[in-house]
Every structure is written in C-alpha cells, then in structure tokens.
Amino acid sequence: MTDKAPTTVLDSLNLGLHTAMQEDSRVYLLGEDLLDPYGGSFKVTRGLSSRFPDRVWTTPISEAGIVGVAGGMALRGLRPVVEIMFGDFTTLIADQLINHLTKFNAMYAGQVGVPVVIRTPMGGRRGYGPTHSQTLEKLYLGVPGLTVLAPFHLRGEMPLGTPGTLLHQAITTTDAPVFFVENKLQYLLPLIQPGEGNEFEMIEIHPGDETRAPFYRVRLQSAPPPRITLAAYGYMAHLAMDALKQLAYQDEIFAELLVPTQLAPFELDPIYDSVQSTHRLLTVEEGSPALGWGAEVLARTAETLGAGLHQAARIGAQGVVVPASPQQEAACLPDVSKIINRAREMVR
Amino acid sequence: MDNHTVLYRQMAAIRSFETLLLDQFSSGIFRGTTHTSLGQEANAVGVLANLSEDDIVVSNHRCHGHFLAYGGDPQALFAELMGKPSGVCGGVGGSQHLHWRNFYSSGIQGGTVPMAVGMALAEKQQNSGAIVVNFMGDGTLGEGIVYESLNMASLWQAPILFVLENNRIAQTTPAHLAIAGSIPQRFEAFNIPAKHLDSSDVLEILPLAGELIEKVRTEQSPHALVIETARLGTHSKGDDTRSPEELAALWAARDPIAIHGARLDESTRQQINQQVEQVIHGAFQAALDSEGGTA
Hints:
The complex is a heterodimer of chains A (348) and B (295). Helices cover 33% and strands 18% of the residues of chain A. By secondary structure, chain A is α/β, with parallel strands linked by helices. Chain A has two domains: 9-188, Thiamin diphosphate (ThDP)-binding fold, Pyr/PP domains (Rossmann fold, 3-Layer(aba) Sandwich), CATH 3.40.50; 200-347, Rossmann fold. In chain A, strand 9, helix 6 (235-251) and strand 10 form a beta-alpha-beta unit. In chain A, helix 1 (9-23) packs parallel to helix 5, helix 3 packs parallel to helix 4 (94-107) and helix 6 crosses helix 10 (336-347). Chain A starts with 8 loop residues before the first helix and ends with a helix. Chain B is of the alpha/beta class. Chain B has one domain (3-289): Rossmann fold (3-Layer(aba) Sandwich), CATH 3.40.50.970. Chain B is 46% helix and 13% strand. In chain B, helix 4 (74-81) crosses helix 11 and helix 5 (112-125) packs parallel to helix 6 (144-155). The chains are: A alpha/beta (348), B alpha/beta (295). The interface between A and B is medium-sized, with 33 and 35 residues.
C-alpha cells in the first residue's frame, strides 16, 4: 500500500482492506496464496500479510472449508473476509453459503449475526478458458439472507463512491453474509472522477433505506434528454459508458446508464424512474442472460411500469462455455459494439 | 444426589423425551421429521458433563440428546418440534436446527464441521478459554468438507474435540458399505490424536471425554474421540431395515440406560423414572398448551 490516493480499482480495493483491518481488530483475511510478496493472485491483498501477520491466514485449497471456518469465526465475534481466487471456484462454496452462512440468522430465529464478506473476481478476456473465466454471480442472486455487491470504478467525494469504500463498509458494518463480486479486467480500470476532465455527469442515488449500497446515474454532460436506459454493473458499466459516448457522437442517440452497486436484495426505483421517460431498457451483463440478472431487471420493470416499458432487451455472454481462444472468447462475451448495435435497433 | 443418580436422571430424561416424541408423532402434533438419540444417550451425557460454562457445542441432525444434556429446556424443544413461537428457535428451525446459549446444530452432514473449527479458532484468537465440542456420526465421514476441516483444525491448532458417534449405520446403510479404512486413523492422518472407545457405559465415556477436553483446553489443540455406539431407534420416524434379531441383540448389549441403571437400586431407579416421566410429560403438555404453531 502507498500513501497516495488510489488510482485504479485494484488500489482502491487494496486500500479498503488495509483500512478495515487497521480500524477493526476483529477483521481477519482468509484465502489462498495471500501472503506477501505474492499478495494474492490478483494482488488485491498485497501488503496485508506484512502489516497484519496474525490476521491474514493463507489457506489450503479448500474453498468450502474456508468459508465454513469464516462462518464459525463470524458466529463467535470476528469479522472474517474470504478471498476466493477465481469466481469460478465459488461453486465449491455453494453449500456453505446457501445452507449454512445465509441460513443461520433466520433459522436460529435472529439470535445470531454472520458478518462474513466473500470477495471474488469473475469474468473473462484473459484467455483463461472455460473454468477460470466465467461470470457466475447470477447463481447467488436471490439467495435469502445474502447481499451481493459489485463495485463501480469511481473516485471522488460521493459517500460510497469508491470500490474500496464499498468493500470497507461491507466488512466493517455488515451483520449478514456479503458476496462481493469483482472483475478481472475491472481491477486495472482507472478510477474516474465525475466531471473532472471527462464527459460524464453522475449522480448517486440511494433507493430504499440507508443500508443499501447506492445506484449511480451516468449521463454525458449537457446531453439532451435520454431516449434509452442502459443498466449495467461492474466491468460492464465501463463498456456501457463507452457505448454511451459512441452512441451520442456517432448516432446522436442519447442514453443514460444506471449502475447498481447492490445486486441483491434488489431495489430498482432508479431504473423505473429512468424508463418512465425513455420507455426503453437495455441490460448488459457479462454472464449468460438466460434466467439471469437482466431477465429479472426487465421482468420487474415490466411488472412495475406495465405499458410504460415499450422496448426491452438483454446483452450478455452466449450460453456456452467461455472459450480459451482469443477470437472465440471475444465472440462469446459482450462488448461495446454489441451494446451499440442493440441500442441502435431499439431506438430506430 | 450422587453422581450416579444425576447421570442416570439425565439419560432417562433424553430417553423419555425421545420415546414420547416418537409415540406422539403419528398423532399429528409434530410436523416434518425427527432423528432421535435412542441408544446414544450416554455419549451426550458423558461428554457434555465435562463442559465449562462458556464452552461451545456444535451438533448435527441427531441433536436432541446433545441439546438436553447441554441443559436445554425440554419444553422449548417440544415447542420447537411443534412449530410454536415458544420453541428454541421460534419454530423456524425445527428438529435439526437449534441454537440456545452456546449450543448450535444443523442438518447438513459435515457442513457444521468447518463452522465448529472456525468457532474454536475465534475463541482462541480472543483468548476466551472456551473450547468446542463437535459431534458427528459415521455417516458424516462421507463428506469431503470434513477432511478440509480436520486439516485446518490441525494446521491452525483449533481447541476442539471431535466426537464421532459410530452407530455403524447411516440411515439404512451399514458402515461397511460406506466407510473404507480406519476411522481413528482419519483423524491421526491430520496429526489429531484420536482415542477409540467401544462402550455405551456413561462411566467409561465421561472420564475419557473429560481427559480429552482437558487436553484440548490446556494444549489449545484438536483431539478426537471415536465412540462405538448403537442407534437403538429408527433413523427418523419409522425407517429401520435392520432385523428384529439384530435390534434385540443391540438392546440387550448396548442400552446405556440399562447398563448404568444396573448400578442403582430398584427403588431409586423407579423413583427417578417416575420423576423424569412427570417432568417430560409436563414439558410436553406445557408446550402443547403454548400459543400458535401447527398443532
């Protein structure tokens, strides 16, 4: 960790972990290959084992076991954070997450809290092939008792605006299990400061009660009223912002983007508010869209707005394994041109 | 009351509770399923008699005996099984999912083992002095997460006693169709010392468990106790594929109430039995009379 303000998502998350461990001695970190000098496969945990050697535990390759141990630690007064090296490996923790950690509070009649944060990177575009490139968080959306968060690559003064702050808040304040979805390419994104040398205007929206992580509404500065609403999170929000610019400059199609940082439990008022004026909604997710996040967003918007929603579409990965070859992988995953093409079809 | 009487009373209470529960299941008062501790009462009473105030118990699907031996209220347990708000967990948990003070149980085989290890590590990190007793069965040994957990318990020296109640049958599957190799050696392979006891006698289980719990506490490291035992009842409500001859032989040789009861004179035994019946039936009736639920 350096004293400089973080400039990338990776730095921000690293700072969030450092800050949480410094502030609260109940915070422990468990995961595979976390120790310095390696500092974790994607380096999110670098520096932590040197600074907090007693509270950073490198573990055997036992994803389910680690999450179970963390659950036990949380039931007895600690606040563990678990890193699952690749999001693909979260299938191994499904029983601990679904049948254990998220059940304890309700099945023990509210007598216990289970403050565990499980962080993991999803996503492809690194050529890692079918078992190291997936985007699987849709499997965990809708699990009762599980909060799912995904950071947005923001810097700035907004209360929860940075990835590190979102993570820090989750670690130090949650009473229930949190599944914190990162993305491999998102790690390297520079943090953007709204309005500072870029074309975007952003506002932070807090739907529902204060315990929910915010939405962000992104528009181009001084743009005319939007004609289509995009919804995306994580790394897809970055692609959608690119699409926002190209649609405006090339096609004079103005769009606004809604970026949730809390995927579950759901509160979609900011999307409904936007679609009430655009009447068009396009969701973008890196996982396959069948039975997924976008499907739920569209369904809820249709249920809420009825005939106010004129057009709806989803962009996502093809419903196949993510190939290792660069050409095949690119064809499989969503990209900026796919977003632009679909948006054009919807507006014209 | 001397110690013999106390132990007998505790075991008789579990026996009475489970017997009444099974008797009443067909009446429709209870919903769902249940797994009784019939035949394994001495394990619960013998092991848990050694606990200190702050120690933690993590149990499994067959948890009623452990809960009652821990000091749990039979009325609250009956009410839980009836799905009533006055139950241990307000009727949400049911038979397998109990939490009261430092007692926790859950119904997924093996799934509570890492949780128990994590609890022990948390107590150690916070220097509370508390240790964890984690019950599992022979059937639990089929689950991979058990071995992940034993590995971490040993690597990180968790203050935990694993108590494996080997009743040699998992639902309907006899151990020889499900378990290869040695049970104690499963623990020893991870450098967790394991004691092996073939007994349903509470006076043999209690001191050995006490010795191991003392070691766990002073050494701050994991130990295991493998108890050969007998499930004298069905797996749940009526599923038992064992022959009447096999069951009769188990009852004759392995009934912990009979084994320990023989040490008391007839009139003391009768007196305790009557008192226990009164308490358990009273608890049942009070639970039945409490508000709400499915009854």
